[in-house]
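Troubleshooting entry. Yesterday's outputs looked truncated, so today I'm pasting the complete records for two proteins to confirm everything comes through intact. If either block looks cut off, that's the bug. Protein one:
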Amino acid sequence: MRTGKIKFLKDVLTLFDFKSVSDGYNEYILLASCEIENVCACVEDKTAFEALNNHIHLLSRIKKRQRGEIYELSEKLGKLLISVLRSQFPDKHFVVFVTVDSEVTVRFHQKWSDEPWYYITDDENAYQSKVFCFDC
């Protein structure tokens, strides 16, 4: 198997391995591959903190003719991730974004009260991207 295919499989599997870190007040759910082990001070923007640390870039250099199939697979991947998060953290609520443009990017964060979601998906044409959004 080529190195690129192995890296792709590892990246996809990384999406389903989580850890919890705390700032003393809040519990953040991060990808286990994230290097952050603890948070010393209260995080001002909890949504951005999680969203920036919980993202993976998959499948670069996507051709336009591949997009239809990539959209279908990306939607399934997003639904699977939100389902896994829901089952592993039943007391928390999450948002998962899968963005498809020249690459596929998967990102998630908790729904924090009084904070907007990381992406506003109404204006996806501005980015020439397709953004799938899943929440629980």
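Protein two, checking that the full record survives here as well:
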Amino acid sequence: MLNRTAIILRYQEPFVRWINEADPVVEEPNIDIEPDECTVYLIHEIETREDLDAWLAQHYQVLFEEELSGWYTDESLWPTNRSLALFHEWIHVEYHTTVVDVVDGPLVDDDL
């Protein structure tokens, strides 16, 4: 077991609408996001939803910008009011306190 909490970010309809409306190249983009398409982040151990909410209040901006830049790196296309309320409107957050690594091998950071 890893001493981490997994948070899963799932796009909600406003985020998907933004992806399609913000595209500066395609006139009528039609990108659909499947429910199983999500991003998983491993963070330090968090035991309760209240603790997660407090952590998100401090770190949502980084997560939000990471997700936005995954679609468009031009920040002028991003929403200007990236508040915590907008983050929750656009992204559903799940958290899981038990993270088990069942792979027999080291964790490797692909970005290094």
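Both blocks look complete. Sanity check on protein two: The longest strand covers residues 4-11.
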